[in-house]
Fold this sequence. Notes:
Layout: H1 2-17, H2 21-49
Helix pairs in contact: 1-2
Keywords: Plasmid
Amino acid sequence: xxxxxxxxxxxxxxxxxxxxxxxxxxxxxxxxxxxxxxxxxxxxxxxxxxxxxx
Length: 54
């Protein structure tokens, strides 16, 4: 999942630097999706093991 977040951030940065609206929007959506997936996996793992979530 870390590599997906890195790629998403790179897409966002390239979109901003090149002033490309489509690439910037695609990068922002990719960052949001990767971040949501990472959070879901983290808290899902905690709930499976019986740990108390934050």
